Amino acid sequence: MLFAWLFRRNRSMPVTTTVPVLPAGVWPILPAAQLLQPHTPLITHIHKLCGVPDDYWRTLYQPLLDNFAAFVQQTPASEAHHHCAQGGMLTHSLQVMKLALESRKGKMLPPGAAAEDVNKQQHAWTFAIASAALLHDVGKPCSDQKLRLFNANGQDTHTYWQPLQGALQSGYYQVQFVRDRQYRTHELLPPLLARQLTPDAALSWLQQDFPSVFKAWLGYLSGQDEVAGVLGQIVTEADRQSVADDLSGSRPIHTQQIPTAKAKPLSQRLLTGLRHLLDEQLLTLNRPGAAGFFDGDSLWLVSKRVLDELRNHLEKEGQTGIPSRNDRLMDELQQHGILTPTVAGQAIWNATVKAGTMEQSFTLLRIPANTLWADPAQFPKELEGTVTPNAKDGEAKVSKSPAPAPTQAAPVPTNQTVVPEAAPAPTANASTDAEQDAAASTSPWGDDDDLLPPTIQPSTPEPSTPVAPASQQAVPVAAHKPATTTNTVPATKVHLPEATGNPDSDDTGERFLHWLSEGLRTGQHPVNTTEAFLHTVKEGVLLVSPRAFKLFAPDNWDYVQKRFTKLKLHKPAPNDSNIWLYHVRGEKKSGMVRGFLISDPLETLGVAYLPTPNKSLSLPNNLNGNPP
Length: 628
Fold this sequence. Notes:
By secondary structure, this protein is an alpha+beta fold. The protein has helices at 2-12, 32-36, 40-50, 54-72, 88-104, 115-135, 140-143, 190-197, 200-209, 211-221, 225-247, 266-279, 303-316, 326-335, 369-372, 433-440, 508-522, 547-552, 557-566, 601-605, 621-624; strands spanning 26-28, 145-150, 156-160, 172-177, 292-294, 298-302, 349-355, 358-368, 386-389, 534-537, 540-544, 580-585, 590-598, 617-618. The radius of gyration is 29 Å and the shape is flat.
């Protein structure tokens, strides 16, 4: 009896599992449900934004989320930049997914299509945008990081995860960052990994029923912006917003880094280097020829000189990864709230400095003194004079608290005709022409409906109940309704012709024409905005030269322009030149813009309609002769 009692007692005692003692930064491999659980409110919001019934969610979206979470585990999105904390990759990707879907709610896709086509393709576009947003950085755990594996007992196996063989299964892992990595390799991997993570039902649905959406989706994952079109614009902007939100947060980047991270954030290195140059008086202050001026609250630094000296100092110290362009350095300082922006959100201030007999205008960077020195006793001597910013930049004095991160410059309203090349770019941080074009492009297509997706053929049976109208579904977050514009899709059905040009032609002119046509049809190329290279005029469409050709082929643009000229799709100017001159009139500036005039743009560019002419452009008779 005693032995039987002991046997029963021992059998009923709970079995305790011993968690092995693990080195710093070694984490358990977790199931998808456990990884996603902290993000439940965000995923619920994403579900509402998608606007699909539960059956479709379970077939299309939930498997994608599960596969992605199991694949990335708790890896960070970077070592010393945005979302560098444990689990940062999953957090960032879900945020980009949410932001992209919110942006998608204000757009009718594809741009320029008839209403019935927009309704038919609506949910295909929604899934394509959502999945592209989720997968945009999925290559990072494969190229920028390597995961060292530990077994269930916490013992180092001295092996590394092979991502192309599938997700981690059991045990533990440690994130290590690849040194001397091939930069931007992670951008080449999403198409390969998308096949591994995207449900078969979703791939078949897109590829068979919506080939144009599938093409844009593949184009974005492959890094082909000209193919991705508006889908790429939406996801790229959402990515930038997520990065900016994280970098402008209250927690400094270096306090979030995982234990195995060795790189110091660039923003911290820039701040430390600048403090050293000032403390050692390698940057002089408050005199003629100085590198900066201190007004008691802010340090005003001569922009180009200081950034060049800062870069040289860091490179002499042997530091790597320092951007060679000053606009990149300004971006880094501004993203982290180190710089005080102008009222327009720009990094560069235009100001006049008066000190003694000196009175001189400068382009300056402005940094609160307590951002550089915690103790006011360390502040430099105050300038015996004044620093007066231009009226458009803001007031001279600010509080001594660190400036908040700048808000993103508002996009140009689409109901407003914009002067080409006459207005300043939306931010002072110089960017590439392509980035400026993407920032200037706005969606003129208005709101879409919450119609349910067309019938798909998933692995699970179709819902037997009839599809409910959108008004009976859960209401997603209110969509932003842009102002009515001249670019609005016509109420009547229009026939959209085929894109012109030939992307596979040996003729560069034909390839350029196809790029031009596709970009206009998909909304990738902005029209009548400040940075646009396409402007509608009374005589047709003005193709700004050489800007358009430089965007297509920066190193060979003149040859592309010659080949396009050979196609004879433009109207020669009356003075026997191929180039027309148009007068640009803005509120404060006027000037000239030149380019090719396409007098029959609908047929030449393969579009069904165009916006009304840009009122800021006119054809001066004295330069071109009589109008066509």
